[in-house]
Amino acid sequence: MSITTEPKAPIKGLDKFFIGGEWVQPSSSDTIDVIEPATEQVYFQVAEAQDADVARAVTSAREAFDNGPWPKLTHAQRAEYLRAISSAVRERTDDVTQIWPRESGILYGVAQAMMGGIPDAYTYYADLAETFHFEEPATPTAGGNFGMIAREPVGVVGAIIPWNAPMTLIAYKLAPALLAGCTVVLKASPEAPGAPYIMAEIAEKVGLPAGVLNVLTADREVSETLVRDPRVDKIAFTGSTAAGKKIAGIMAERIGRYSLELGGKSAAVILDDADISSTAAALSGAECFLSGQVCSSLTRIVVPRSRHDEMVEALAGTFSQVRVGDPFDANSQMGPLAMQRQRDRVESYIEIGKSEGATLATGGGRPKDLDRGWFVEPTVFGNVDNSWRIAQEEIFGPVLSVLPAEDEEDAIRIANDTVYGLNAAVFTNDADRARDVAGRLRAGTVGHNNFRTDFGIGFGGFKQSGIGREGGVEGLHHYLENKTMIFEEKPSSFPK
């Protein structure tokens, strides 16, 4: 099989950072190789930020917030920039869909489909400029004749994004932050800096005031400089639970604001009336997305014991037929994992599953027809005990564990017996049963008869899956601070 590659990424300024509205020289000559996961070849190089570069970006964002025009604009004026960004993102669809598969292994067709909705996130928040109540009256209870609540921008935001879906995750951090009036330092993942650099080009194109958006790429150690800087008012982070815990601890030291979208080990609860064939097709199809490198993947399949073997057989049948290959091949149904260390991690968990006593129903190795690239076979384990590591720890790859349950109560107990609580699903032909079970599952999202998440409503998790929500109106609140004001009389400037 021929695996395609492009000689050059369609991005400018890869040897620089976007700070203060300009492309600036880094403080060092250090660079990061971005490796294409299907070929194991260097796709492009990007400048690697050091502490001095992060400090410079924060200085720029701080100056833009404290003394620049951006926070002083009306929400409607900022919304016009968001609409311009939306149009510019749509214009760069072809560039993003060339880069995305070469950074993280997503199928080209899936990247195209996802890019169709990303510009809408910016227009959604632009529309909130007219409908969201940034100021509301409040009845004073301790003196004064007129009270109000003003929702003001939190300040300088450090936005830290992962490598699996950067363009989507940028949108749901950047759009609400900009509408609120915040300024942003966007820290790109070393594995996937393409989308952040495209957003820097877009910021330049639409004429965002200097310092409103600053973009650089740094590894974890230098990224901590951004988190520790007291001039950063809020950190918005998507990534692992381990990194999220570190960020929360640092921010707690200075009472900084933060929102965290972290890991998951999400359960699909299969009730006794569910159709096994269609359920298996839905689960295996969803797990092919980004080769299972999705925090909200449904990887714990909880099924009545009497139907366990049927479920394992059905999943093995559908998963074993998945065509793994070149992300740009229209016949491929799943691409590679994003990087070598990710494949090593997945393979190590497959060995753990075998040693723990799980039944390997399909997969467990590397595709025999692919001699390069970080590919792995879709894998299904049966007879998994919920206490085992493959049932409790996030693998971040195409590995499904089927767990037998004695009855519905036991299934709910098993589903909730995890430190995570990001996503879940209930498979049943009865919507009322689905609603009952969904109400008892400790997860930020619960879908019916499929893998479902919805940033338009809101996305986030319970327990160690995070703090806060992204998307929807809830996603805007995290970029605002509430201020109570009490007056002797109603100001004439207050909206009627």
Automatic annotation (TrEMBL):
PROSITE patterns: ALDEHYDE_DEHYDR_GLU. InterPro entries: Ald_DH/histidinol_DH, Ald_DH_C, Ald_DH_CS_GLU, Ald_DH_N, Aldehyde_DH_dom. The keyword tRNA processing does not apply. Keywords: Oxidoreductase. The active site is at E261. Gene3D superfamilies: Aldehyde Dehydrogenase, Chain A, domain 1, Aldehyde Dehydrogenase, Chain A, domain 2. The keyword Oxidoreductase applies. This is Aldehyde dehydrogenase. Belongs to the aldehyde dehydrogenase family. Residues 23-484 form the Aldehyde dehydrogenase domain.
